Amino acid sequence: MNNHLSSLATARTWSRRVVSALFLAGVLAGATSCNDDSDSDSTSIKLAGPKPEWGPTIHPEMQTVIEKLDQLSGGVPLNTLTPQQARMAPSATDAVMAVMRDYNIPAPVPQVDTTGQRIPVSGGTIRVRIYRPKNATGNLPAIVYYHGGGWVIANLNTYDPSARALSEQTGAVVVSVAYRQAPEFKFPTAHNDSFAAYRWVRDNATTLNINAQRIAVAGESAGGNLAGAVCLMARSASVPLPVHQLLVYPIARYDMNTTSYTQYANAKPLSKPLMQWFYDKYLTSSADGTNPLISLVNATNLGSLPPATVINAEIDPLQSEGQEYASKLKAAGVSVTSKVYEGVTHEFFGMATVVPEAREAQALAASELKKSLQ
Predict the structure, then answer these.
(1) 194 and 333 part of one domain
(2) Strand pairing of 336-345 and 124-133?
């Protein structure tokens, strides 16, 4: 373990230097949705090795990001670390920025302004980051966005590319929520914080210059679970529902014996052992896992929920449960658009500057959101 930690510290130091350089170049601020001018930049990417055993169908750009992430992290699995150490480890976003640096891939000019503030929740406050399209006027629609990280790791910066992309491509204000994380805060704290943030956005619509009748929710991975759960919580509390739910590779079933868990147990950046590590940190007991707020597929009366867009990656343990929840919503009469993107892994959605499938997925998400936000 000491050797692992030494490798991690070295990798994180190198990664921070890369990130600092990219900050100065303005890359982080613009590493979001990618316009057509940069579509050709990723074609010159060269792979360092053969396709991994766990991902024989992986596409070159995606593989390059995974290889870079392995390089930055020294190959240390997150599930061998403490939560505090894992939060310091290089992220997929760090890897994308390093690939951009390696291949001189330019970042698009940011089209949103950001502000930050703290909002009240039960037992304290949490941070939110508000993205507003530049030069926008009037009451805009809004999207409350929840980042991923298994309810344990990651932060607003890690998922900044996704939040920016959604704001830029939908013309909506995006409120990105930094809910409290495990193991310091166990289930259902992240869920309660997420619902409190949704209510805060609704209650402060006038101050935020948004239209309270046009608010959607969105999230990735654990954040996709939170976005779906907020819809259930709003219904239970008789709070007006979001007009749309964007669920990107959501955690939706407490079951690690699904087809995709079996096929992609050793995938990167999310593996079966890492997902078990997340559950161990956030849940108090296995009984929590059957709660519909964790296992969305266990929820009832799905027909009353808002339209949904469900996006999954092919090479991802969570593929099966995400598509199962999409099927259950559709069977209940909910309008659902769902798609599995081939050749990519968990976390691909925010990688639009490098990964073509991320650009496609962001465009699909924005198109479906706009239909509900109009």
Answers:
(1) yes
(2) unpaired
Q: Is 316 a catalytic residue?
A: yes
* 15 and 163 assigned to the same domain: no
ω before 269 within 30° of 0 (cis)?
A: yes
Active-site annotation holds for 91: no
| Alpha-carbon gap, residue 160 to 50, rounded angstroms | 31
| All residues at 6 or more sequence positions from 22 whose CB lies less than 8 Å from its CB, including other chains | 28, 31, 97, 100, 101
- Of the residues 70, 160, 193, 316, only one is catalytic, namely 316
Q: pTM score, two decimals?
A: 0.91
How many residues in total does the chain contain?
374
Q: Annotated catalytic, 372?
A: no
Write down which residue in 70, 102, 134 finishes a domain.
102
> Does residue 179 sit in the same domain as residue 269?
yes
Q: Please give the residue range of the domain that contains residue 74.
A: 2-102
C-alpha closest to that of 72 among 105, 97, 107, 42: 97
In-domain check, residue 296: yes
Task: Look at residue 73 and tell me if it is in a domain.
Answer: yes
- Active-site annotation holder among 191, 338, 346, 372: 346
Of the residues 15, 221, 260, 295, which is catalytic? 221
Q: How many domains does the chain have?
A: 2
107 located within any domain: no
- CA contacts within 13 A on the Cβ side of 319: 23
In a domain, residue 58? The reply is yes
The rounded average pLDDT for each run of 10 residues, N- to C-terminus, in the chain (374 residues) is: 46 42 38 40 68 98 98 98 98 98 93 98 98 95 98 98 98 99 98 99 98 98 99 98 99 98 98 98 98 98 98 99 98 98 98 98 98 96
